């Protein structure tokens, strides 16, 4: 086959798969990016020692970067070379855009047929943002990323200079942290981690604010940016996301403060101001930055368990965050309130939420729970670790959060592969995976007669 | 007020509450029965030693009996007197009928107005059973209980005689076990528990069969009893319940065999036949008999975690079992399959399942998860026990299962009260509790405009 012929064939293939199963295209795009990153991290030049990284660690790190998780089996600051860290940072930036955006970019770049890729987005982003065309939507997403990341870097580069670094490393570290924060990636290239800076507001506030902005998601960022002065005119999605995120953040910060106030290994020995900042940062980490400034491994079991629940919920839809998403939680809660009150409709902010939305929320939450449950069972069988650490690690991987009680590095390879698969399924979305695996799509014309089984 | 006047006033009050909030009436009936049982168990005559039982233990045991749970802080066979055991058995028999049946009986007995109580049942039992009238439905439920319990006693009394007991104790023990099995109560009056009889099919098979029949629920028992030869004509509810229960039982038995086959403390030292019977009994316990014939405390962590999931699901609706119910699981799974396939309707056995049923299933599952999560968090704070034992105990209490890793007796009073509340909420039904607590019922005429937030 000639070169133009091969190009045309691959274009037709992308066309075909985008038309027949957008979910499968999205999964393929993500898998391909992870494969390339794994290959690059497998080069000897990627490690500080110059020795080839073991496959399990290269795959785990590549997946953790592209899925913006931040769980690491090796120390990012010391194990990888500058080249290796650049590879990780590129993975974070690409992965942070999200699976739908990436699939759309591929569709635009290869097949130049907006009509097809638009179909993928109509059900999701466009209705919310009001931007009709996919091309301009993708541009807006990339511009939003760049603007927030640049703002964070402008704050963080001077912080690294203030720590005594010279210009080049301060620039590198500042940009790396800016991208890691906005993309909720959880990777840290600061030697010795963030715990020494638990009381530093100059570092802590950008983490809290940057995480929040990245985690509400691109549809909300674009919506709010256009209608900054008129919150009442925001979309239902934007209102639900912002309010639920804010409530979860405040509740988590208060709970962490309450649970850890007297724990000498975390908040107990800090000054009052430092405890407040540490609680704020810890309250935001489950959204899913994973950037902790206290030792998670030393937290109380009750804090771990609460963090499990918060990580599972995660951040906003079509965001840099993971989890089942805050709107999923909000819709489920609204459905239950309506059920308990005996209301026919589920309502919020003067809008009705339809039953198909509830069904999607159920699917996402139930598939997420099942995936977490099965993975936990596997790790209980593979390792001798207790349930609390395993459940924490599994939910952190699923929700691409990156917090850990400290077991990641010592896990056997089989457990690393389970977590790798979990990060992939968590970031691409359980329902995307389920739709891609579904044997066929069916459209029936004849409706069956209705019958109610007894529930509960 | 004269006596007839007081009677009329209380009748009017029951009338009023049955009309305005059937959920609250159901909760009140259950709480009243538990209060009476607690008072009886607080009498010195109720204990073998003749000393008054501590309030926390009397309340816990009364709740465990009426909620047919079987978790115990004191040994049933040795701590309570014969009178105390009779009180427990009466609690089991009354509680096994279920909250809706009890509320209906009260409604019939006091206010003699079937119309009102029927409203409580129309949404639930009558549609499924096809029996129009509440009075005959209640009679059918009581007759079904008595028939199955008598059949079990006919098998079990000879077993106790065969163990060398004389007629009176054999009768008492046989009847107690028959009621404990059918009502999924999990109480045992055999000294030394059931583990010595792990290989005894004469005892094991009645446990498996009796648990299954009790756990499918009265609507299914009545439906199947009438249409024994025509499974195709069973209601959708009966089909879903029987099939889901059978699949869970088979899967659980195989999983227990796989996980525990080489564990010397459970199946490892048994003969092949004994391992098979033990796996069958253990596969049925989470449905929620709680009658284990191997030492649950010695099981592997993976078996505990799988049992957590199985207990949470529990048995059938309007049955003697607990949990979120098998139809809730079935409807959620069917909803997800439909979602992944892109189907408009949720279908099973040629019937369509409506969105209001899905919403109810979501509410039950989500409220159950929330209740389990909050209770687990409380017990993590109250005690120093590890997450695995606590989660197991909490789910066992919520799902009125009664299995335990062995921590119940040593829990502090505060933890006992948490579990007491959990058994009550689990047995009366989380959605019943939520509906009773809802501030008001609203019926809107104006519908809000529809808007879809992004999910997942
Ligand atoms: K992360
Ligand atoms: K039980």
From TrEMBL, chains A, B:
InterPro entries: Cat_transpt (IPR003445). The keyword Thylakoid does not apply. GO terms for biological process: metal ion transport. It is a multi-pass membrane protein. The keyword Transmembrane applies. It comes from the Bacteria. One of its GO terms (cellular component) is plasma membrane. The chain crosses the membrane at residues 25-43, 55-74, 86-110, 137-161, 170-189, 201-224, 236-259, 309-337, 358-382, 417-439. It is found in: Cell membrane. One of its GO terms (molecular function) is monoatomic cation transmembrane transporter activity. Keywords: Cell membrane, Ion transport, Membrane, Transmembrane, Transmembrane helix, Transport. Its main location: membrane. PANTHER family: KTR SYSTEM POTASSIUM UPTAKE PROTEIN B (PTHR32024:SF1), TRK SYSTEM POTASSIUM UPTAKE PROTEIN TRKG-RELATED (PTHR32024). This is TrkH family potassium uptake protein. It comes from Georgenia thermotolerans. The lineage of its organism: Bacteria, Bacillati, Actinomycetota, Actinomycetes, Micrococcales.
